[in-house]
Amino acid sequence: MLLHGNASVVTLSTRLVSVLAAIGVVLFSAESAAQTIDAPRCGAGVHESEALGPVAFPQDQIFCPILADPKEARSFASLLRGTFRSLDDPSGEGTTIASVGLGDSFGLIRWGGPRPNEGVQLDVVGSIFAQFDLGAKSNDLINADYIIELPLTFRRSGFSTRVSVYHQSSHLGDEYLLRSEDIDRQNFSFESLELLASLELGPVRVYAGGERILRREPATLPARVLHGGAELRSGRVGTVQLGGLDFKSPDLNDSSPAYSGRAGLEVARYGSGGHPARLVTLMLEFYQGPSPYGQFFQDDISYVGVGLHFGL
């Protein structure tokens, strides 16, 4: 795998570690409030006053977010360096981009029980993922993906599932389009049905499933995608390490699988009233396979990088 000039990424990583360590000292010095009932390490936890029965607009989640999936709804800012063939250099090697995400989940209703942290929940989720070319004078916006999702989640002990229907549309940036008349812009949008099943065994979590594309434009998008992975999350919320590996295999001819990995340092500040902690994580990241960035789904890319993630 490529990667020239990684010194800049390492230097930034060192600086971010120092900043995060300072934040951690401040956060951990604060007195922690009451925690959620038996909140598992993955971060799914239900407030004690909302543990059982129907709850409208619940604040907590019962399905833990997938750590290493590039399309999981989350807020983050990452610096990535690698091979991106869709940019100016035909080889794409040695390219540096900034990847930014804004994502949030809003609970609509939960039927809690029969025990705390268990039940069925319906949410609405929205996210935006954007990439910027840091090699361009104006840090051009390359691509932006918009996703709206309705997930129905279920949890019983350490077993949980997520069934969701989501829409994604993707758009190229204006500055990027002006680079050349040869740039092939596509009307890119689709709806998909996704199913994931997850099992937590102490600090280890494994998950598997897939998705079926219901409507797609262009027609060259994959019709089905297999999805799986594993995570290791030590201790409870607020400890200093976690990591995950994610795997996706689209059913396109000659398409390679996608591998994504993340590992990092985490700090937490516990909220008042027993709600889950606010989390900040410094992540080291790698990716290899078909691009997760909508307009470039037919390109194989690879990168390593570092990023700050919020609320995992």
Protein described:
- β10 and β11 (258-269) form a beta hairpin.
- The protein has one domain (7-310): Phospholipase A1 (Outer membrane phospholipase (ompla), Chain C).
- The longest helix has 23 residues, at 7-29.
- It starts with 6 loop residues before the first helix and ends with a strand.
- It has a 12-stranded antiparallel β-barrel with strand order 2-3-4-5-6-7-8-9-10-11-12-13.
- It is built from 2 helices and 13 strands.
- It has 312 residues and is mainly β.
- Helix content is 9%, strand content 51%.
- The radius of gyration is 20 Å and the shape is globular.
Work out the radius of gyration. 20 Å
CATH topology: Outer membrane phospholipase (ompla), Chain C
Please identify the structural class as seen in this structure.
mainly beta
Number of helices: 2
Which key features would you list for this structure?
Outer membrane phospholipase (ompla), Chain C, 312 residues, twelve-stranded antiparallel barrel
Topology of helices and strands:
Layout: H1 7-29, E1 53-56, E2 75-83, E3 95-112, E4 119-133, E5 141-156, E6 159-172, H2 174-177, E7 188-201, E8 204-217, E9 224-233, E10 242-250, E11 258-269, E12 278-290, E13 300-310
Antiparallel strand pairs: 1-3, 2-3, 2-13, 3-4, 4-5, 5-6, 6-7, 7-8, 8-9, 9-10, 10-11, 11-12, 12-13
Give a short summary of the structure:
Helices cover 9% and strands 51% of the residues.
